[in-house]
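dumping this here before i forget
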Amino acid sequence: MAISIKSQREIELMRESNRLLCEMHNELAKMIKPGITTMDLDKAAAAFIKDCGCVSNFLNYEGYPGNICTSVNEQVVHGIPSDKTVLKEGDIISIDAGMIYKGYHSDAARTYGVGKIAPEVQQLIDETRNSFFEGIKMAKAGNHLFDISNAIADHIDKFGYGIVRDLVGHGVGTSLHEEPQIPNFHMTRRGPRLQAGMTLAIEPMIALGRGDVDWLDDDWTVVTEDRSPAAHYENTILITDGEPEILSLVD
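structure:
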């Protein structure tokens, strides 16, 4: 498994790509309310990406038709933006997005409530996010990759949620998906040793019910088999000689 180590120049380019992505997520979050369509969000993302001189790394990726992924309620990931998908009070939506800046990819996802949502669904969103932060406590040079996986799973297991096993995190850099694959579930092996300069997209995908999933007929949209709500939280991080740097989460 060859995991790329980024140079200082590459890290600076990835910082800028992810800074812009964080800014876009913040703008899209302001739009989320009952009555908006997922295509409205996609169009806003397309305009933002164009205005900052980047290109979407999702659009046309293996044929994917959207600029971003908009996954509603039981949709885990890869929901396709549509004029027909109108958000309503009580829904949740996961936005997964990225862009390419001077050849370098960014990747991050957030789940949002639409208006007032059920308390147990808000807790699912919160603990999915919290599991990411538990995971990256282990994202230090000298530790092993699956230390991250086990920390995420340890946190989620406290709540009895379903961990999606069919989809995992990944390396990211000059390609959207690089080595290594990063599971969100317990691993018996430790995996490769982490080194400063690695850039990883860590992304817990968690269901309120079971973690088993289906693919819809569009061949993209992944839904929970039991149709329970699902949450997704992702950031691109940099392994350093000290604490990890979250590239896609900027003050």
